[in-house]
Amino acid sequence: MTARAAAAEQTHRRILDAARARFLAAPYEEVTLAAIAAEAGVSTQTLLNRFGSKEGLAVEFATEFAREIDSDRATARAGDPRSAVRAVLRQYEMMGDLNIRTLALENRIPALAEISRMGREHHQAWLEETFGTCLPADPRARRTTLLALYAATDVYLWKLLRRDLGASLAETARVMERLVRGALAPPG
């Protein structure tokens, strides 16, 4: 790698690191390209040249963050509700508030709608992979079980329990695990 390419990669990394810090800490509307550029030690024009817009930067950040989340979620043991809930909660404790803020704006900002769509797809694929051996063979029953698993592990449930009802992390884990186990139980 040439010195120029290495410097360009370092600049890219600094911008994404600064964007991560800003997007995690503040509502989307309050995050400015000027603040991200200043934190990264580049000009706003450099940031625009690399990402095109705030929306482009948000999508790039989310794409990178999704890889990190996928890697963490891969630690969940297949078919194990406790392991799966712990993986999801690690993610939500780190970035659940950002998820909720993004979802609140997805109908107004196309880039955030794309980020939300990607998140939903990743979550559903992860649920299918993690619980695939526990899912019913019948397509209709399989879909119902996946929907129940999705509801039991969704960020809105995390927000309800942790933010709105003040549940501890341990209580939240117990509730989510109970719901996951219920979703996997054969209909009675």
TrEMBL record:
Keywords: DNA-binding, Transcription, Transcription regulation
Transmembrane segments: none
Any matching Pfam family: TetR_N
Domain HTH tetR-type: 9-69
DNA-binding region: 32-51
A Gene Ontology molecular function term of the record: transcription cis-regulatory region binding
InterPro entries associated with the record: Homeodomain-like_sf, HTH-type_TetR-like_transc_reg, HTH_TetR
Domain of life (superkingdom): Bacteria
Name of this chain's protein: HTH tetR-type domain-containing protein
